Amino acid sequence: MTRETYWREDPAELLRARPGIRLTEVDPDSHPGIRGSKSDGEEELVEGAGILADLQELLFANSRLGDRRRILLVLQAMDSAGKGGIVKHVMSAVDPSGVQLTSFKKPTEEELGHDFLWRISKASPGPGMIGVFDRSHYEDVLIGRVRELAPPEEIQRRYEAINEFERGLVAGGATIIKVMLHISRDEQRKRLGARLDRPDKHWKFNPGDIDERELWDDYQRAYEAVFERTSTLEAPWYVVPANRKWYARLAVQHLLIEALEGMALEWPKADYDVVEQQARLAVS
Amino acid sequence: MTRETYWREDPAELLRARPGIRLTEVDPDSHPGIRGSKSDGEEELVEGAGILADLQELLFANSRLGDRRRILLVLQAMDSAGKGGIVKHVMSAVDPSGVQLTSFKKPTEEELGHDFLWRISKASPGPGMIGVFDRSHYEDVLIGRVRELAPPEEIQRRYEAINEFERGLVAGGATIIKVMLHISRDEQRKRLGARLDRPDKHWKFNPGDIDERELWDDYQRAYEAVFERTSTLEAPWYVVPANRKWYARLAVQHLLIEALEGMALEWPKADYDVVEQQARLAVS
């Protein structure tokens, strides 16, 4: 597998959540696998953007001729960790026709009337697409656990239900990449503060963000339980240090590129006779 | 209303489908309202991209505080006229979180079991979004009419049903922009030929494209009937000359910018006490 030139080591290896991982052991300021500074990072994001766009077009082209493969990128994080920035700065490189983005909010009454995977399943990406979940079914074992929105035995059941659900997606052709953007508590204070300081950012802030922030340690434990129970071979978790936005964006971009390169895609062969169609076209 | 600097006349005025419009009277090679060449067009697209992205963020920000406004861009055209290029080159400027794109294919069995507006209605954009329909309910009075997929009286009924449906969207906060990308028959031959000549473009070609092409004049008449019956004050049609891709992209980009500028959007006021939240954050 080739690699964009600026990675010194394979970030997929460096970032994968290992059994027993503790978030306190991952430095949110670090930038594993890559030397360089913010300004380099921005140039490199542009290099990767072209690669990613081309690979997604190949994936899409193959889907038109029956290939069932697709990507699902799951983004989870504490508020202000940069999920929106990943969507804006990484996914915008890809033809909008090839991206299927779903932002999961607090469930509606109708959604609560169904199993927690009902709305998730409906949003899973079609063949040839890169699906992106901005929040996901993992909220149901994160806020679900921290806020005790469901009894403990239901939370336990959900981990297994999630693994089963994801196995089904993989069997259907999906490559699943699960990313937790890892920021520090201080960094979050700074970012929320910046939203409060700028009138053009006020709309991004919600007083509830501070309520959640006060449960910081509980959320960190809930994430660790998620890694422990749902980081599988088929659908691994990656913990991406995200205090430096440029690093988080490059890392997620790379995970997508690596997944697509692993598919060894070629332009699909025409399922019609090219010469015959050229002749038809000439007289049409 | 301000205008990007390169337009000499308002393209919205120049391109709007007037009563009695005949497609033979619109030159697909022309570039109304703008001097300049392909290379200028590309620079100008970049200028407009930033403007469009900023305006969409404003629209989205307001929706978070209850504003119901949204945009719906409807794209219709003969094959290879450049719908996909508009999505790729114009819409990619906007944060993917703010775009809701739906590509309508041949209806499924389930969709055919419902009224033709069923699947359309489900895909209409939420507040703060720019919805894009790549093909739309207009297929049901275009291919529907040309291929006689429904009896003539049903086609007649649909024009009125469409107007009624669109009035409802407008009442709900939508600004509707309907675009027909207008290419010449010769230009289509050239473009389909290019797809056949390049193995990396074979997947974009379908022998059925030539079958449709052979009904060119019928389609042109069906489009004229669409303009006649459904170009309303609330939801006008624009006929965009599209033999020059750079022009069509600039024109559609401008129609979006003009619609957003017409909303006179400002950053929404916070619905919480900023100073109080700053104090809470400081001790959290």
From TrEMBL, chains A, B:
PANTHER family: POLYPHOSPHATE:AMP PHOSPHOTRANSFERASE, POLYPHOSPHATE:AMP PHOSPHOTRANSFERASE-RELATED
Official protein name in the record: Polyphosphate kinase 2 family protein
GO MF, one example: polyphosphate kinase activity
InterPro entries reported in the protein's UniProt record: P-loop_NTPase (IPR027417), Polyphosphate_phosphotransfera (IPR016898), PPK2-rel_1 (IPR022300), PPK2-related (IPR022488)
Database matches in Pfam families: PPK2
Limits of the Polyphosphate kinase-2-related domain: 37-263
Keywords for this protein: Kinase, Transferase
GO process terms (BP): polyphosphate metabolic process
Native organism: Agromyces intestinalis
